[in-house]
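A note from the maintainers: we've had questions about how concatenated examples are separated. There is no special marker in the raw files; a new sequence line simply starts the next protein. For clarity in this README we add a label.
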Amino acid sequence: MKHCKFQIPTDRPVILQVSRFDRFKDPIGVIKAYRMVKKYNDCILILAGSPATDDPEGEIVLNEVREDAANDPDIYILLLPPFSDRDINALQRIATVVLQKSLKEGFGLTVSEAMWKGKPVMGGAVGGIPLQIVHGVTGFLIHSVEGAAFRIRQFLNNPEMLKKMGEHAREYVRKNFLITRQIRDYLSVWYAIENKGKGILEL
């Protein structure tokens, strides 16, 4: 069976990273981790994102990625135009394992997006990623190519852990990163103002 638009087989585990093609997202490192995993677990790798047009090295990095992946029919490099939210949504849903192997990062919205779809995420332990991933509960924080490969294999060889962590990931996003949490915080401030002087506030 194939994901129709991109002709990606879904009969094997799918490893996915959605990010710009720049060095800080370490797409070459993702390919190296995939190759380590591939020796033991048959799987597919998808690198999806847009070229880093505001980065002078963007085209160079993209060409390096293409060159590194050239001989492997199981590596899919997808160049997505702006506003490809539906395509990204579909890719995150068919993915077995989602990576965000950043070397530098802000909040990294794609982490929470994948977690909301019930996917445990492996992300670089940098920037805002540790705010989203509870190590060993909603996914794993990774520090190296070897670490990424080890955690991918751990997931692929333990479907029950994959499922449970995915459920924890979705619940963590529900409690912490949806607009409903912001409303709760806003109402809590007003409630505290209305009830100032009380030592304990019951919500």
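[label: protein 2]
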Amino acid sequence: MVLWIVVGGAIDRNKREEIKMKKIFGLILLLAVGLFTGCTKDTEAAKGLAEKKQYTIGITQFGEHASLDNCREGLIGGLEEEGFVEGENLTIIYENAQFDTGTSNQIAQNFVSKKVDMIAAIATPVAQSAFNAAKDTDIPVIFTAITDPRAAMLTEGNVTGTSDKLPVEAQLKLIRAMLPKAKKIGILYTTSEVNSLSTLEEYKSLAEHYNFEIIDMGISAAADIPLAMDRILPQVDAMTNLIDNTVVGSLPVVVSKANEKNIPVFGSEIEQVKLNCVASEGIEYVELGKQTGRMAAQILRGEKTADEIPYEVVEGSSLYINSNVMDNLGLSLPLEYMDRAIDVVEN
């Protein structure tokens, strides 16, 4: 009996030790799984997207003007080329902020509440709103038509896209070639648009190399543009546009005011030249959108996460002219530009 009690106690102690070791092993295993899960969170989110058969993308656009519309067209086209077709395996929710930052924030928050698979943002203000709304979720944000993603603080996190950085030096060369006697170039810009501030600084830093002085004037809203034009036109020999959403959205007012003073307005892309700017060294916004769509497809397929894809900048520029406006202003294009010039009137 005594022997049985001693042996029985030994067995109980062994069992307790066994149980204790199992608990310790289980805790270690749990910690290991937790660490692995944390390290692979982005990868699993990407795989989850790749395994889906239906996708929903929220497209937010800061406002309606031809450049941004072309970006949206190209974005959808780029996705379609990669197998993501609206009405088949892709649902697109499109919202327009009407150039209002408050509305931009509401749209972004609504997309997050709907748990879309991706937010595509066209122009800087809506991209910033989308990034801020989605940063604590696993929803990737892809942007386009942003001049300076770094200045907009859109280079870190679950975000990537394409930049429409202007070929400023090429534009200055063009203006000098067409206006050999000009001294001062006027630029309107929206004070709240970081893309405009960045490009304006580049214009100022390069203008002196071409014997130009930049006369700039900031506005807060489209309603400020008529008065701003009345103030700036007497001071300048020509105007040039940035990719400023508020100013471009009111381009007919800018051009009309300038025409009254016979002052040429240079655009920053083809659509502005179609709207009676005299010429531009600009980029192709449909192609910019397609490039963005191809990047978005990589994320949806789970090949990469947004933070693994550096933002891309379009290289080079295309020269567009409006021969009707040139004739009205008595301007001509130097011979060295003729071979690559595309006349929007003839095309």
